Please model this.
Amino acid sequence: MIYSGLHLPAHPKAPPRVVVQDPRNLDIALRHSLTIAPPDWLSARVSQARLLHEDGNTSAALALLTQHVPWKAYAHDHPGLSVITLYAEIYTALERYTEALDAYRYLLEHSEDFYEIQPMDRLRMQGLTYMNMAWIEQQQGKSLQALDYYSESIECLGTLRSLKTPSLLSALMVAYQQRGQVHRHLGKVNEALQDLHLSMKYQQQLLERDIKENLVKDWLDLGQTQWEQGDLDAAEQSLRSARADWQYLQLNEAEALLKPLKNFEARLALARGEFAKAGKLYEKIAEKSKDLPTRIYALLMAAEAYFHKDSAQGIALCQALVPQVLTAEQENVAQVSTGHLTLPLLAAAELCENHAQGDLALTYYQFAL
Model:
C-alpha cells in the first residue's frame, strides 16, 4: 500500500512486500492536477506514456518516453516535473533502482528551479521524494541509507504537520512506520517503538478527521429531519453542533460542506420567522454561487423572506432578478426548463400579485409556466 492509502494491484505470483513508493507523488501529494508540463509538443507523448504505464504497459511507456522525451538530454532546460516523476516511477516499477534514484536526485538537486511550485508544495515534494528514495534503498537492503532518507523525509514533511491535510498525515504515518521497520531491522528496538507510536499518532489524527467530517453531515441530516417534523429548537441545536465541528475541518472539506450548512441555516431562519436574517443569508449564498440557477434560487428565497419583513425590499429584489431569469431561459438552463425553479417562481409571482405588482406578477407567472 502506498502512503496515500491506495491499494496496488494484486500480483499472486509475486512475494508479498510493503510498498511505500508513491507512483504519482506530486499529483497525489498536492491534491490537485499539476499544470507543470514539458513543452507543448511533448505533452501528448508524456500523457500517452502515463496511460500506458497506468494500464500496466510499463516497458512500452518507457520506450515511448526515451524515444521522444529523453530527459537527460534536457539537463539545462529542465524538461518538467511531470517528466522526471514519470521516469522515476517507471524505473521503480521496473526495479531499475539506480536510474530511479538518479531521477529522484535530479528532483532534489533542481527543486529550487521549478519556480511554478509554491514553497510549501516544494517542501512537500522534497519530503515525498526522500520517502520514495528511502523505500528503494530499503528494497535493496541498504538499511542505513534508507534510514537517512526516511529521516530527511520526516524532517521535510514534519515542518508542514500543522496543515493536517489527509495526504500529509498519511505520508507522515507511513514514513514513521517504514523508519520503524528499518530501526527494527537494525536491532534498534527502542527507536522502532518510538517511530511506531508516532505513526499511530498520525493514523489517529486521520481517523479523527474522518469522524469530524461525518459528524457535520450527521448533524445536518438530523437537523433536516427535526426541521421537517417542526421541532425548530432541536434543529437549531443540531445546527450549532454542525457549526462547532465544521470549524475544525480542513479547508477543502470545510468548503465542500459550507453550502449545505448555509442553506440549512437560511431555511431554519425562514421557518423561525427571522425574515431579515434569512434574506441576508440567502443573498450571501447567491453571492458565493458560481452557477446561475443556484444564484436565482437563492435570490428568489431571499425575496420571499424580505416580502414577509419589508415588501418594498422584496419587490425591488424581484425586479432586479428578472434579467437573470431571462438569461437562464434564453440559455435553456436545465433547472429552468425542467421545472426545478417552478415553485420559487410561482411563490414570487403570488407575492408580487398580493402586493399590487400586477405586471411583475405576470412576468413571474410566465417564467413559472
Q: What stands out?
A: The first helix runs from residue 25 to 30.
